[in-house]
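Field notebook, page 313. I keep forgetting to write these up properly, so this time I am using the form the group agreed on. The chain and the ligand, zinc ion, are recorded exactly as supplied. Prediction of the bound pose follows.
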Amino acid sequence: MAKRKSSRKAVRTILALLIVIVLAVVSYFTEPWQYLTGDKNKIGSITEASVTDLQVHYIDVGQADSILIRIPTENGTKNMLIDAGTSEGYPASNIENYLNGLGITELEYLIITHPHLDHIGAADEVIADFDIQNIILPECEASTQSWLRVLSAMEEKELTYIPSEAGKTYTIGEASFTILGPVDAAAVDPDDANNYSVVVRLDFGETSFLFTGDAETASEEEMLARFPASDFKCNVLKVGHHGSTTSTSDAFLSACDPDLAVISCGKGNSYGHPHKETLDKLEAVGIPVLRTDEEGTIVLCSDKKEVSRLTAD
Ligand SMILES: [Zn+2]
């Protein structure tokens, strides 16, 4: 009898342990990874020309940035591009081919964050080859060949630009985006061109995405001084400056408080991006990271309530 009792007790203990393990595993995978397990079939194929959910494509452009945003509206899909950077092995044609592959001929907005090649290398060709309704860029002092090419591409098509203005909100269908930085482009030191970076929060329903270009700590501090921390709260943070330690200060990260971080960087890049300190900082607060050097192009989508990851079939 005593033997049977103790074996029953052992079975109960094992069962209890199993339940604890299952619960631990389930909670590990549901928070915050639940945001990444959305039904990819819900919005169809990645190559579909019109979309029903908002999509954010962190295009793999090596050690550079280029982010395509596709917004469903009553008048069809509107497209927006933040940066068109090039890097070694990732020529301008990569971005053009990507947009062409999605059947895109028109951009509602082109936002150029700042005048560095890894953010503007393909911008002149994109301006030349696509119909662009609005171009937003920071008023900046730059005289590099690549920047002059961007300005002359605009001139060629008789396009003017909207100077970025912190605090300004633009609406596209049911989505909107707000410019948070630079707070004062005229005050940025031209030798610190990363701090010209146009920082944008995109809102769609209850979800939001933050795009930071290469904005560094100085710009982060100015933005936090100008706007309440809640303005930076987002589901997904595009980590500033390819994951360099020069960005993502503790105060900025805590204001953003994202569920997921995305880093755009090139495999084996000479800058060592993303820096270990930045990755450690994200890990310490339990924020999962997706990197273009590991994953290639990363596509996230939002149904206004949740952000999911869309993977190609
Ligand atoms: Zn950069």
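OBSERVATIONS:
- The pocket of zinc ion is lined by residues 65, 116, 118-119, 214, 242 (CB under 6 Å).
- Residues 36-310 form a domain with the Metallo-beta-lactamase; Chain A fold (CATH 3.60.15.10).
FOLLOW-UP: compare against the apo run.
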